[in-house]
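=== How it folds ===
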Amino acid sequence: MPEVVSREEWLEARVALPAQEKELTGRREALNAERRRLPMVRLERAHVLDGPEGLVTLAGLFAECR
């Protein structure tokens, strides 16, 4: 259980949280950006998947995104 403290001690602890949250958010955004910059690997063979409308290649799934 958390300790019971005075309102002033609670307020001091509470005021510190947004700065920590902002730092964590910034670090998470930087990590996500780094992940997006990872190099890609060329697929050497066709990957065929069973989609709702039948068989479709992996490239076919993303054909409309180009």
The chain has a mean pLDDT of 92. Residues 22 and 66 are 35 Å apart (CA to CA). The longest strand covers residues 48-51.
